[in-house]
Write a structure and sequence with these properties.
single chain, about 230 residues, mainly beta, Coagulation Factor XIII, Chain A, domain 1, five-stranded mixed sheet, four-stranded antiparallel sheet, globular, binds 2-acetamido-2-deoxy-beta-D-glucopyranose, binds copper (II) ion, AA9_LPMO, AA9, secreted
């Protein structure tokens, strides 16, 4: 990986600080680590996914992990994740969901296929150098759309560290999938639907980008438009 001298000077000491999303926050309560969240491969080293074409880009699950439980949440309520280590790197925060197919369960379904829709996408604030709403956050949350049909879902958080993203596979993806059972939902039709891997390309303008020089004046979130319910 090549870095420009300018980039290194502007962004010192950024390589080692990583983070995970181990706990779901339901009804304002922080739950135990990996209780409702599928344990990720990086649960000890905290390192990111960098290959958007790998299966790890979906839920970053650790092979052989213990099965997680499924949390009950009301449609229209907020569900969040603890960011352990805090969101140290600059970049966008996104939440996706996927409905568990009939006959399967959130506990065991693998989340494959064109099944994922986005419920939140947070880009930067412009003016001077870019700042991001999730900078330094220790918890992040999204509202489950009130019109979302009831049922079991995977609930995926994604933060993309863009501090060294000017080359292919330089962006750092921090990901977790929670297991939730939505109650009191509506008759909405979530979309557009995408697959993981598949939703992103390494060269997407929101993934391969130098955020330091020249400072961008616009930013395109990777993936589909947000479904607003
Ligand atoms: C999900 O909620 C429904 C409605 O309350 C319930 O019948 C079902 O057993 C729940 N499933 C899980 C896995 O919690
Ligand atoms: Cu890091």
């Amino acid at each position: 990986m090549k870095f420009s001298t300018t980039l290194l000077l502007l962004a010192p000491a950024i390589a080692s600080a990583h983070y995970t999303f181990p706990s779901l926050i339901v009804n304002g309560q922080t739950t135990a680590e990996w209780q409702y969240v599928r344990q990720t491969e990086n649960y000890q080293h905290n390192g990111p996914v960098t290959d958007v074409n790998s299966n790890a880009i979906r839920c970053y699950e650790r092979p052989g992990r213990a099965q997680a439980q499924t949390a009950t949440v009301a449609a229209g309520s907020k569900v969040g994740f603890v960011a352990k280590g805090s969101i140290y790197h600059p970049g966008p925060l996104q939440f996706y969901m996927a409905k568990v197919p009939a006959g399967q369960s959130a506990a065991t379904w693998d989340g494959s296929g064109q099944v994922w829709f986005k419920i939140l996408g947070q880009g930067p604030n412009f003016g001077g150098s870019l700042t991001w709403p999730s900078d330094g956050a220790t918890r992040v949350e999204a509202t489950i759309p009130a019109s979302l049909p009831s049922g079991e879902y995977l609930f995926r958080v994604e933060h993309i560290g863009l501090h060294s993203a000017s080359g292919v596979n330089g962006a750092q993806f921090y990901i977790s999938c929670g297991q939730i059972n939505v109650t009191g939902g509506g008759n909405g039709s979530p979309g557009p639907l995408v697959s993981f891997p598949g939703a992103y390309r390494p060269t997407d303008p929101g993934i391969m980008i130098n955020i330091y020089y020249p400072v961008p004046t616009s930013y395109q979130l990777p993936g589909p438009a947000v479904w607003r319910g």
